Sequence to fold (755 residues):
Amino acid sequence: MSSYLEHPLIKPQTVEKRLFQLDLAASALKSSSLIVVPTGLGKTVIALMVLLARLNRGRILFLAPTKPLVEQHAAFLRRVLKESGMVVMMTGEMPPEKRKVAWEDARIVVCTPQVIENDLLSHRIGLEDVSLIIFDEAHRAVGNYAYVYIAERYLREAKDPLVLGITASPGSEKEKIAEICANLSIENIQTRTERDSDVAPFIHSREIEWVKLTVPKELLDIRTAIEEVLRDRIDDLNRLGISPAKIDPRATKKELLGLQAMLVSSARRQANQATFKGISILAEILKLYHAVELAETQGTEALLKYFHRLQGEATSRSGSKASRRIMEDPKFRQAIQALEQLKVEHPKPAMVRRILREQIEAKPESRIMVFTNYRDTASALLRSLKGDPVIRAVRFVGQSSRADDEGLSQKKQTEILQRFRAGEYNVLIATSVGEEGIDIPATDMVLFYEPVPSEIRSIQRKGRTGRARSGRVVVLIAKGTRDEAYYWISDRKEKSMNREIRSLSGQVSESLSREFSSRQLEVAEKRPEERLDSWAEGKNERREGGRIYVDPRERGMAKLLESRGLEVILKSLEVGDYVISDRVAIERKTAQDFVASIIDPKRNLFRQIADLSRSYERPVLILEGRDLYSRQVSPSSIQGALASVAVDYGVPIIPTEDQEDTASLIRLLASREGREGREPKLHGHKTARTLKEQQEYLISAIPSVGPSVAKNLLRHFGSIERVITASMEELQEVDMVGPKIAERIRELVGGEYKG
Fold:
């Protein structure tokens, strides 16, 4: 017979009492802790116990990475607490001023970290009286994720801080676990596994099956053809001699991405032609690698869709150089042709249908989650299952959209999950967005369309079943492909993670803390502006004040600026990215952004610069990064744009190495303006265009036509109509207009619309 938690604030007989949860909660109250327990064992209940114990000390902040998870946690707390009104859910959809009011009155706030980060940077809220922060899916607390910033602010501001991190999968590497602990100021790690005696009574069996499939020879032949092109590109890269070691054709994607990061970093430090060429070849290699993976593990339809996407990129003026060169390769074109004529299909889609039908016919009330790495595969599966009388499938993907694939809003995601729980859908075909934290206790089966080489993702996928009752996990493996390698990699990593967590359970070891601290020190030493003397100077500057307005799109930079002692106010800016004073505003562009804004009419560089120079007396363009000439844009076009910004608009261009360098420069500019008593002032706005400006803008939007050429064309012909009706020969009579620009104009105005 079940027993229930008794507490003045908990509704009777709503939360089952489990001794291991009480034990973990008691430990978490002693010091900031990371709790690692498998999915389905009540991490939220542990959080509830700690939350109730700290509630009399101040406000509680409960963070989760997605809106569906936030809604899930808020619903649970409201269901079990007698005073459901003490739980406030805040999302980005709530207006900022309403969030400010809600925060002031709330005792328990459930929220995404992005919203809290935004409100902290905008000074709408503070963390002084927060007695506990719960970080759900705490393994995300790495890099530049919002958890890291919030934890740092909390430790600095709170009067009585306590952190609770909860996760099922912190990772297999000791360094990763150390980073999470350091970023959240964790002092204590506690864990339970399914093998622990106090956990075993609450575990439901979870059967794991591996289904091995044979890929048709015809499809493997296409893979081999792509691999030949891949080997050619790897040979080209090796001949450059820019890699520390010779690249093996069997190199993993992780190794290739590591090399890419190294080359990009090298290019920023010391630009040279070989490095840029290497980056370009590596971009081709990664695209080809992806094509090989699709051929092996996904299916004909997903591969064909990817080929068509490459073709679109190759023919688009704003498309990548890598796609263009791949499509020019005769071997690759032959592979495309062979695929288009292929009469056989990958065995996985048919096997998915068979497994789903068997499960549903045996258990008609089943809920099944199918996981795949790729949206194209999810779409193809949905189409292949359409019309089946017993399978009611729906696609569940993230929010981001691309030209040929619209994402799902958070509202739509929530709606789909509700309908899945209710049984309107019995199959959820999900990408990685469905892996984390979704509470669907009745899920009977999880099907992996392909294994994943990440122990975190594998654990999260498997954890969607076997929660309220026995569950089944089925993993499809294409024989002789990277499916097999990925399965064993994740299996090894999962076992390693369990060993590491078990060894670290209890107090975080001194050696672990020391190891990570030494790495942090190494990073600090590379940034001279953050030595002790500079730090002390920065603290003084903070006291003196130094306020700037930052556009919310520059949130990452805002955090860097704040760490340098500036008072940052997030504000949607119509003009520029940063407002330093009543006369100084800054437009920041990475080298890649700068090039993109030249060739993409929607991101018109010259319009942005014109608005900036009109609105502020001392406008500045910061150009960040060294890879200015790494895209398929002629150096003369880039140099012409730079000249136009500096000469035609009178805007100085200041180059910086990277984000850190940019932050230091902005801090310097703010300090200079502050010493002169100048405060930031938002008087800039996008001015209404005159007829003359509109005419110039329309002509300058043509690729390769900047403001200077646009003015020359309009002066010569007298109107837009006469410009666009002019012949190639007539266009070339205009100063600065050669055959190439004339051809671009005629192609644009005379070319057939293909939409």
Observations:
- Residues 18 and 669 are 58 Å apart (CA to CA).
- The radius of gyration is 29 Å.
- The chain has 30 helices and 20 strands.
- Residues 273-297 form the longest helix (25 residues).
